[in-house]
Amino acid sequence: MIDKKQTQHIAKLARLDIKEEELEDFQKDLSKIIDYFNIIEKVDTSDVPPTFHPTEEFLKIGMERMREDQVFSLSPEIVDRLIDAFPKKEKRYLLIKSIFQ
After folding, report:
1. For 67, phi and psi rounded to 5 degrees?
2. Among 14, 30, 57, 59, which residue carries the largest CB count within 10 Å?
3. Phi and psi of 93, rounded to 5°?
4. Can you give the pLDDT at residue 69?
5. Across the chain, where does the E strand assignment appear?
6. CA angle (10 as vertex; 9, 13 as ends), nearest 5
């Protein structure tokens, strides 16, 4: 079973607000998930053909099917309304929660 510190770290990475009273249940659930992956990992899949393989040829075909990018601009009034509606901003920069430490 994973320990309390690992559970808290995983919850933090997943941006989950786990209360102290929920921690034990969350710890048990995570351990069950990891145990299940360990079972799956032991299954021999050497004779099973892949259902998806991102080869260069596949990617080339995929790129041919994609539409061209279309550039368009919005009126300054619409842009101003969008910026005004954003919860956190500094001048015309939109502020978001940092994802890097």
Report:
1. -80, 160
2. 30
3. -95, 135
4. 84
5. 89-90, 93-94
6. 90
pLDDT at 21: 92
Measured between alpha carbons, how far is 86 from 101 in angstroms, rounded to an integer?
23
Structure tokens at 79: 């842009």
Nearest to 27 by CA among 44, 49, 51, 4: 4
Per 3-state DSSP, what percentage of the chain is helix, strand, and coil (rounded to 5)?
50, 5, 45
Residues 6 or more apart whose Cβ sits within 8 Å of residue 74: 82
As a whole number of angstroms, the distance between CA 8 and CA 20 comes to 10
Residues 10 and 30 sit within 8 Å (Cβ to Cβ): yes
Do residues 8 and 23 lie in contact, with contact meaning Cβ atoms separated by under 8 Å? yes
**Helix 4-13 crosses helix 20-41 at what angle (to 10 degrees)?**
90
Query: Looking at the predicted structure, is the pLDDT value of residue 101 above 80?
Result: no
